[in-house]
Amino acid sequence: MTAINDLKEYFIEIKRLQFVSSVLSWDQQTYMPSGSVSGRAKQLSLVQKLIHQRLTSSKVSELIQEAKKTNDLNDMESAMVRESERDHLLATKLPEKLVMDITETGAEAVEAWKKAREQKKLKGSTFVPLLEKNVALQIEQAEKLATHPDLYSTLIDLFEPGATYDWIANIFNKIKPKLVAFVKKLDSSSSKPKQAILRKKYDVDEQFKLSVEMIKKLNFDLTHGRQDRSTHPFTSSLSSVDTRITTRTTEDFLNECIFGTIHECGHALYDMGFKKEIHDTILANGCSMGIHESQSRMWENIVGRSKEFWQYWYPTFQKYFPENLKDYPLEDFYGAINVVKPSFIRVNADEVTYGLHIILRFEIEKDLIEGKIQVNELAEVWNSKFEELLGLTPLDDAEGVLQDIHWGWGLIGYFPTYFLGSLYASQIYSDALKKQPSLPEDYAKGEFSNLLTYLRENVHQHGSIYRANDLINRITGEDLNPDYFLKYLEEKFYPIYGI
Amino acid sequence: MTAINDLKEYFIEIKRLQFVSSVLSWDQQTYMPSGSVSGRAKQLSLVQKLIHQRLTSSKVSELIQEAKKTNDLNDMESAMVRESERDHLLATKLPEKLVMDITETGAEAVEAWKKAREQKKLKGSTFVPLLEKNVALQIEQAEKLATHPDLYSTLIDLFEPGATYDWIANIFNKIKPKLVAFVKKLDSSSSKPKQAILRKKYDVDEQFKLSVEMIKKLNFDLTHGRQDRSTHPFTSSLSSVDTRITTRTTEDFLNECIFGTIHECGHALYDMGFKKEIHDTILANGCSMGIHESQSRMWENIVGRSKEFWQYWYPTFQKYFPENLKDYPLEDFYGAINVVKPSFIRVNADEVTYGLHIILRFEIEKDLIEGKIQVNELAEVWNSKFEELLGLTPLDDAEGVLQDIHWGWGLIGYFPTYFLGSLYASQIYSDALKKQPSLPEDYAKGEFSNLLTYLRENVHQHGSIYRANDLINRITGEDLNPDYFLKYLEEKFYPIYGI
Question: Given CB atoms, is A89 within the 8 Å cutoff of chain B?
């Protein structure tokens, strides 16, 4: 077993450097002073260079070849070999300078994105040339990696190993018309829930305090994690015993902080649940971003927007915000948080229209990476596509093309995993419910550990031992099947809309 | 000039890794969750390993030899060669494992120190074995480095290049009886100032807010720095454009936050003032810790406890804390912050007894490193020496041997530089005053940039281009001379004590 152990140890140092990079990046997004980005960008790219050097060293292929000779590898060991080889092969295709450029440009571009977002305008902002550079670097990266015949699939594969543009497009294209029709059907109901109560004034510090109370109850471990604020909410593991989330608060929209926090908490519970044996190893990752998003979106939506969840939490909310909620009925509040209505901001979107936000980005990214759209056309393209899919036109770019941080960091190919997450979530949750039909009753009692135990057992502990397709088959006995999601939507929303 | 440039570039990567290490350490001391120390310790030691590898590579000595052949090096270039050679030679004497052990043990020990300090007891705490390990590792380090015949001088030299135990002991031994006599003389006065006003209740959040207002006025650049809270206040540069300070607040002792903040601000102004050419280079450091402390202690004491400083600030303080200060006269407040009286906590000590706190640590460190004191005797030795020098016995170890973080981090040989700082400060300030006699009048107007300009010109911009002894000679035309300090004390405190 020495060969496997040697390989494991070799990659532990890479993992630690990745954690170091996460610390640098977490700090940049939370507390770093505004004028300090140039120094941080150089540090981030240096750490990426060191990771790249270690990944591409000839030592690695020796270690991999040795490990491959070992007989009777268990699942974990095979996965270590598989992931080590994947990372090594990908890295060897990329020149060191490209890796450093991607990181450094991303870190600089994010700061420019923040400013452009504040000014609500992409065109003419300092973000434009940096975003152009991000896109060019991603095209170059995809050309170099070339793991798939088309560039966009190569990028998608970095976040969702095994997935391709065609596979995802096929799924999305089937769901798209159904979602559009579903939104129309709900809209035609004569007894629609109302959202106005969520748009009253809610003190932002109280929101933050309450959100911390919520994650505690959801079993987020505050001795091995924390919550802070940032421009764009995110989850990041700074070590195998340190997983942090961020949230943001809006005084006149309660959803932003509450559901944002539950979403990130879902991600964090995944990272906090890797079994000890894979701590610090190459397997201390989610198995794919789609599976990662399944955890965040399951807690945010299936649990966090369920009636039973609010049977437990609503009295606490009424105590925090008596001026708005004291006399407001639970049933109406439950309707309010489940209003289905096209809106501008993805992270605040309801469960039904959310998929359309993703499909929009998915289609734009495909064209962007194939050079069919230029960065300086991006705002127009966004707005006209948005009109087409969601029937609304953003008033400015802050509620349009500038709302998300991802392209700022140079992440292209990440977005589709969000919606895959919703689909995976419904399918996995349906299995959980089959095995433990009383789960919703738990929520009504403020008891969330039974679902967590199920997820720890079936999803979290494994880290990236299994590929997404293996995992969903192990759990549910079939490939990803979007019908679970569509069925979930009908069963949930018809009663809310009196249909 | 390529040889010099190559050397410079080579060390820039080392400097960046040191900055990365500072980010990791800053986070550990401010926001890191309590259970996450094991992961962080491993990251810190990995970064130290990478630094050590780069410092000891055979490439470095080649680069140094090439650079040495260059003719007509200017001061900055000569200093780069000097410092590069020093760091290289020191590093080559230390095995990689020792470097990693020192870092990892320090990071673990600091967390144990925090807990022991909370419980107010060293003996029997988990800090004891870790502190023993710190001491053993420092002894091993000193034996390996052996830059001086005695171990303690070798450690001191790491913080105060060129200084030895004998040189410092000679200075301290001359001052010690004078300080003791001076304290007695003040104590015998019949019109002593009173400190009680500082011991009333001051809201800690208001203290923090006010302290941020103060550092702004002192020209701390908040776009390239920030202030947070930590168990032990410190200053750290996380890049050449990112210098952060921390403070701590005590509800019933105003000095802790106010003078702690001004102290750290003084450090930060030094780091923020390095000239652009040395940013990110091996010279982007204070020239010694003694000179660094001269900056913090000058702002804290010579400026921050001067009458003119409070002529400007007192009205603001009265506005923040009207319940305590509205009717309290400025003259009495000025007396209160300048009460000279033996007390337990070094960082809160007055300017006169402060030196005795340092002499105590200096003598203990010498014996500890020579094996004449063991860690498990440390509390007793501390208390009896404290009684001897300051006439008081600490009630518990939190106000005794556990008050400082330094030994937790494994820093031995650092303490004497604080008092050297006071001595350097008086000597440098005396020159500043000769050239700009109106400086104190500036403070009364809330104008602090003239002193800063003088310090930028004479001290800050140079970073570590000059050694401490060269610098003090360049500025004042003589070696370190403690008489400036003693004269300063007399001129300041006799009037306050009506002598």
Answer: no
